[in-house]
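Open question from group meeting: does this chain pack into something compact, or does most of it stay loose? Before anyone orders reagents, we agreed to write out a predicted structure and look at it together. Recording both the input and the output here so the notebook holds the full record.
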Amino acid sequence: MEQYVFEFIGTLVLVLLGDGVCAATSLNHSKAKGAGWVVIALGWGLAVMMGVLIAGPVSGAHLNPAVTLGLAVAGKFAWSSVLGYIVAQMLGGFFGAVLVWIFYKDHYKATKDQPDTMLGTFCTMPAIRNLWRNFICEVIATCLLVFVILALATEGNAFSMGDVALGTGALGSWPVTCLIMAIGMSLGGTTGYALNPARDLSPRCAHAVLPIAGKRDSGWWYSWVPVAGPMVGAVLAAGLFLLVF
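Structure tokens returned:
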């Protein structure tokens, strides 16, 4: 249960800071409005780092159902804990998004004539609507994410000398932070790089139920893409990892 609690808290912080940077850079009258894509990519990378620093020592800080699934398929995580981790992550994502809305409530009111902008602070939508292409983009990006996470734990990236951990993998959250930033800057332009159902579906549900003035529909026609794409990408990454390593 302690592991589930920390997955909940870590994912909540991830979404609070990640959706928070989207709100800060896009909502009217925010001091950070217009800061741009680089700030968003940096913000999401650091959001992941903060979540990992909180949950890492207790739960391993998956913070992402796709990562949990990928680790289980690769034999790095117990299948018996998969469902509990995913439930905790999805709940954390929902409440993280609610906190963003509470924090920026006045700015949502000031942006009520821009429903697409408000939705974009909760979840992803494609730049060009092409569902199968959007799906493939999420598969590729998440496959890269999970494959590199698995690779970080391999010999040469993570090893020990006596009682001291050495190597890139020993730096803990920092390599994953850099990975999230790199994916955002390089592969985020098509779909907004969800990579994580708890980062997308849970905040989308929050958008649907919160009393946000002027909001549009929650984009349910697209909602399967940032769920199915990351999960498929994670399974492919695990298979590729087992094949290569």
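Observations to bring back to the group:
The beta strands are 159-161, 164-166.
The first strand starts at residue 159 and ends at 161.
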